[in-house]
Amino acid sequence: MISPETLRRFSCFSPVREASLKAVAMISREESVPAGATIFNERDPADALRIITDGKVDIRYTLRVGELRSVDTLVAGDILGWSALVEPYRMTGTATACTDTHLVVVEARPLRDLCEQDPLLGYRLMSQAVKLLSDRLDGARVQLATAFTATASSAAFRVHLAREGSNV
Fold first, then answer.
1. Would you state the pLDDT for residue 154?
2. Does CATH number 2.60.120.10 belong to domain 4-135?
3. Which of 139, 147, 4 is nearest to 74 (CA)?
4. pLDDT by residue (tens digit) across 124-162?
5. Which residues pair with 41 in a beta bridge?
6. Helices H, strands E: what count in the chain?
């Protein structure tokens, strides 16, 4: 359990009723993760919602070729593991601590029950999840554009070399 005051520091919990905040605090704990440690992997069960209190976390997606590509770096105040709020409750990316990182960890199943009981809590958390999804989509677009540009440049260079070789 953590203190409700700790939760109140985060924007997703600031307007929430005191009773709901205390209930969330009861199902929360603090956790420390060393730099380089994997917090969760893509496709893991989304058993907790995490909030970064200190540190940096890299979010990576697996590309079709098996390469992990970074799409976002999260910092203090950011929510990690929005998948805990949305079915099928599976992580969609891999999270790795870039630095020693401190987290508030909120158990997912009881949190979802609390969101059902308190629509304001549910609305605030879902609003944060939608913002995160939008940010990740933007990051994924940038990564795709970068990968496409690199692939297209490489292909054009190979064509150029093939033409130069045939003229010799």
1. 63
2. yes
3. 139
4. 889 888 887 888 788 777 767 776 676 656 666 566 566
5. none
6. 4, 8
